[in-house]
Every structure is written in C-alpha cells, then in structure tokens.
C-alpha cells in the first residue's frame, strides 16, 4: 500500500459511531475521514458539521461512491452482516463493532467473505485496547504472578434505556469473556450462570457467571444494569500476588504475596505450593490513552502493514457464542459442559 493517506468511512452515527468519526478525523495519523452514512439525516448533518467528510443516508451508496480503505461499522447488530458484505465487496477493510454478528452463521459468512475479498475483518472489542489491560497482559506473559488461579471481572452500572433487543449478558459479557480468553490463553471447559430480570421488560439485567478454563483458571463474571454508579474492574489472582485493573481510571495495581518465595511441596498433589501473606502494594506506571484511539490506530497500522487483525473475528465469534451459552445456563439452571463448549470454540 502506498504512503498516501488511507480513506476511512463510518456507517452508523449513534453515540459510538460519532466517536469513531471524531477519532478517525482527528487522532489517527495517515488516515483521512472522507464519508459517513446513517439513515437519520439529522445524525448525518451533525456528524459532518465542521468536517470535510461527505454524508450519505444509504451506506451502500457511500461504499459505491467512495474508494474507502477502512470502514467502521457501528450500526445495529442486525445490519452487521449485510453492511460488512457490501463493504468487503467494495474493496474496504472492515472493523465491525461487537458483537460481530447475531449468529454463528452470520459471523462465518462475514469471515468467509473477508477471505474471498482478500481484505481484513476485525471486531471492536475495545477493552483489549485499554492501556491498563495491555500492561496487565504483558506482565502476565512475563509470569509476574506465576501460576494464575482466578480472574474476576466486575462490570456494573445503571440501566441503559437504549438497550431493548438483548439482555445484559449479550450486551456486556462478551467484553469480559474476550478479555479473559485474551489474558489466560486457554479455552473454557465448563460454565454456569445465574441471571435475574429486575428492570428490563424482556431480558436479564443481572448476571453472575463462572467459567472454568482448561488450564485450571477460574473466571468469575459479575455484571449488571442495576448499580447506580459505573464500576469496571478486573482482578487477577496468582501465586505471587494479585493485580487489579480499573478500566475507567486506567489504573493497574499490584498487591504482592509476601510469602511467595517460600515454597513447599503439597504431599497430596506433589505440586509446589506458596503460602500467602499481605505484602506491598505497587501502582504500575500506565501511559493513559483513549482505548478507541489505540484500537483504530492498530487497525490502520495492521491494514497498512498487511498484518494480522488486531482482534481475530473468530475470537469475537467465540465471545458472542459463550455469552449466549451463559444466557442458556441461566435460563435452564444447568451447567454447560465441555462437550457443549467444544462446539463453540471449534
């Protein structure tokens, strides 16, 4: 690809779509925002005000008229498949917001279309691009915690009036399921969920789930739309201590296990075991940055360099399907076992 600026477009101009417009237009070197599309004429007018980007009511008309290198699809999930197929056929590389699609079949069709078109398809799992989570992943890869025992995600907040078609699990849990798989590098072998509907008229708005991973890590998810303040955190506990990441503040704090160097052999398992005692707390240095800027910059860099998608679409599909299995478990009150989960991660 030449050194000329890459041409970007955005489909869907709701709150998140407007953020894509702003970041493409103002924050990504080597990219020019040239077009946006939304059936809401007022949304198009507002998004293009003060910008050079052209506005369209029909995304297909935009894709036909403009030679786009990069397209953000921030439309409702029901439109992800048709708009993605149109964008890929036009020759664009595509970032589609999560969830990747409504079903496995739709996600597979999108991945196959990207392969046939020779274009990149990636998915907006934005939490992977939070600087605190990136630093946490680097430190886990360096084995700073030793063996990881548990990973606990907390995602709480008020009820969003905009959400009606899905419950809290499908809307929010894919974030944390994806981050868990991203950090522990293992597949789930068992999961169970409890769900309740307190405010939402059609779907669950309270969810507590557990995931057992093949490498022994236990994942815990505590997610709801019933808390009058936002909390977004991730706690990872291991033999050498505990990390706590705050998504909103982009903080990463390490709590050391003071007795970690002292080990003995558990006669029952033959494994080396560490004792646990309270140690020093250390706040890791984080270079804070808007996650969407990191995400779109990585997408543009990957396209220009021909390099793998920042988030593989298969990973996004698995996160969606695991979330749906959580809904199924909560509705039936049953554990989802390894045989059923193999169908998800295959």
Explain this structure to me?
The protein is α/β, with parallel strands linked by helices and about 350 residues long. It has 2 domains: about 5-120, NAD(P)-binding Rossmann-like Domain (Rossmann fold, 3-Layer(aba) Sandwich); about 130-290 and about 320-340, Dihydrodipicolinate Reductase, domain 2 (2-Layer Sandwich), CATH 3.30.360. The protein has helices at about 15-25, 40-50, 60-65, 80-90, 105-115, 130-140, 170-185, 290-305, 315-330, 340-345, and strands spanning about 5-10, 30-35, 55, 70-75, 95, 120-125, 150-155, 190-195, 205-215, 220-225, 230-240, 240-245, 250-255, 265, 270-275, 280-285. The strands form 3 sheets. The chain has an 8-stranded mixed β-sheet with strand order 8-9-10-7-11-12-13-16. Strands 3-2-1-4-5-6 form a 6-stranded parallel β-sheet, sandwiched between helices. The protein has a two-stranded antiparallel ribbon with strand order 14-15. Strand 2 (about 30-35), helix 2 (about 40-50) and strand 3 form a beta-alpha-beta unit. Helix 4 (about 80-90) runs parallel beside helix 5 and helix 5 runs antiparallel to helix 9. The longest helix has 20 residues, at about 315-330. The two termini are about 35 Å apart. The model has no long low-confidence stretch (mean pLDDT about 95).
